[in-house]
Amino acid sequence: MTDSFSNLSLAEPLARAVAEMGYESMTPIQAQAIPVVLTGKDVMGAAQTGTGKTAAFSLPLLQRLLKHENASTSPARHPVRALVLLPTRELADQVAQQVKLYAKYTNLRSAVVFGGMDMKPQTLELKRGVEVLVATPGRLLDHIEAKNAVLNQVEYVVLDEADRMLDIGFLPDLQRILSYLPKQRTTLLFSATFSPEIKRLAGSYLQDPVTIEVARPNETASTVEQHFYSVNDDDKRRALKQIVRQRGLSQAFVFVNSKLGCARLARTLEREGMKTTALHGDKSQDERLKALAAFKAGEVDLLVATDVAARGLDIKDVPAVFNFDVPFNAEDYVHRIGRTGRAGQSGLAVTFVSGSDARLIGDVEKLLKKKIELEAIEYEEDKPRGRINDGRRAWREAGELGDPRDVLDAQRDRPPAPARPQREYRAPAAPRDPFFDQPYEAPATDAPPAWESVAKPANRISANIKPKRRVAALFKAE
Ligand code: AMP
User: Fold this and answer.
1) Which of 79, 402, 442, 460 makes a 20 to 30 Å CA pair with 219?
2) Which of 57-66, 110-119, 418-427 has the weakest average pLDDT?
3) Chain centroid to CA 64: how far?
4) Measuring from atom 20 of ligand 1, which residue has the nearest CA?
């Protein structure tokens, strides 16, 4: 089947923008979703970031909005017609930039609003009038409350990365936002998975949706070499360093289950001489941008991340992914290891399984539909061991070490529902960074691996560990 964009009869300004992007053919989600969205039907799409889903919804939306296109300077002639909601500022920024590119030859205006930035420039843009508004839920509500955004002429709403929005605790905000929209509208929901919560959300807000599924969530790239090692909690760092060394890995993602565990691990690895940085929800926007830029530039070898923080970031083809913790949600296993082995490249995915992980590994087995064989690690008589032990002693003295710490950290991250859900960020204003648009490329550097060089100062731990709402509890509260 040839999935050429020319089959779509896109309006000339949109077709020109697509041609300029250099897209040769549609991706599977585009081939399936664009014709449906062009008919105005609701869509429930299972697709992850990286599949081309932004164009899959924005091109047909823009095409349908062209009937409202006008060159008037009056804000009243540019009401919000399409609303795109995303869980994080990085995703919102990425999507907004793509929408701008697709709409560049039209008179349709677009804008993005997300938290952690000054409200004023966003307010000015909103007051000028925009047809397509890309937003994170918390900040959008702030603008609605300040009467900067009026949504009574919205015809299309896109709930993108809906599963993540629920994970983060945005359900009440979403419900409020959706209550401001006209009942007569098209709603598109995209989610990596169709969990029962997502189905319930779709049941409440979508009308007779067409279901579109590409890249089923239990598919992992065949180019990824997957290993599951049986490792005690105390030996995980040692195992990690040994595999990195033995495999000669230049860079890797290391996934952990909790923000606190993430900060601690990054700090300890850094102390032990690995060039490491942490990416988690309590990092400010500025810190996240710096962490990512440093990783992309090859200044950092290990990026320790939580699932929520790493989700949606356009970092591909990392040579290896480590699951330092088995993910709580089996589908996150697929998301995590999808960072490596992309585009035909070979990749390595290593998962450390400790004694208490039996149930979680069972979930991964069910999802992958295959039996997982645990391998043992033979530890080298490694020189840095003394240093690790010194580090452990320091931790013990500081009262920080305990085997179940990561799980406990994660539990601490999930207290009962607070009065207000977690807003996406609270960091000071930071400039947008175009590197979110660029695919990750391994840095061209001959520098020796960091663990062979001198240790750097440890990373700071954030003082603001924000609580998380339980999604199920929220539904019950309705
Ligand atoms: P998304 O999944 O929407 O975040 O898109 C991931 C990347 O794929 C973006 O950098 C897009 O510019 C790119 N992309 C989207 N559609 C196509 C296409 N048909 N052909 C090639 N690249 C595409």
Assistant:
1) 442
2) 418-427
3) 28
4) 23
Relative orientation angle of helices 330-337 and 358-368, to the nearest 10 degrees: 70
Distance 57 CA to ligand 1 centre (A): 12
pLDDT at 41 over 90: yes
> Ligand 1 centre and the CA of 80: distance in Å?
25
Sheet of 132-135, strand order: 110-113, 132-135, 82-85, 156-159, 186-191, 43-46, 210-213
Ligand 1 atom at minimum distance from 23 CA = 20
Say yes or no: CB of residue 27 within 6 Å of ligand 1.
Answer: yes
Whether 53 is in the pocket of ligand 1, judged by its Cβ within 6 Å, is yes
Is the predicted pLDDT of residue 395 greater than 50, yes or no?
Answer: no
- Ligand 1 pocket, 257 CB below 6 A? no
Which residues make Cβ contacts (< 8 Å) with residue 41, sequence separation at least 6? 186, 208, 209, 210
The H-or-E segment that residue 144 falls in is helix 137-145
pLDDT band at 475 (very low <50, low <70, confident <90, very high): very low
| Binding site membership of 23 for ligand 1 (Cβ less than 6 Å) | yes
Q: Which phi-psi region, left, alpha or beta, contains residue 41 (left: φ > 0; alpha: ψ -120 to 50)?
A: beta
The H-assigned helical ranges of 373-437 are 385-397, 405-412
Distance CA 302, CA 287 (A): 16
Full DSSP string of 11-58: -HHHHHHHHHHT--S--HHHHHHHHHHHTT--EEEE--TTSSHHHHHH
| pLDDT mean across residues, the chain | 79
Give the pair of three-digit tokens for residue 126: 């909103």
Q: How many CB atoms lie within 10 A of CB 433?
A: 16
Q: Of all atoms in ligand 1, which is nearest to the CA of residue 439?
A: 10
Q: Which DSSP state fits 395? A: H
Statement: the pTM of the whole predicted model exceeds 0.85: no
Distance between Cα 271 and ligand 1 center (Å): 39
CA 447 – CA 439 distance, rounded (Å): 22
pLDDT in tens, 112-149: 999 988 999 999 999 999 999 999 999 999 999 999 99
Cβ–ligand 1 distance for 87 under 6 Å, the answer no
Ligand 1 within 6 A of 54 CB? yes
Q: How does residue 449 score in pLDDT terms, banded at 50, 70 and 90?
A: very low
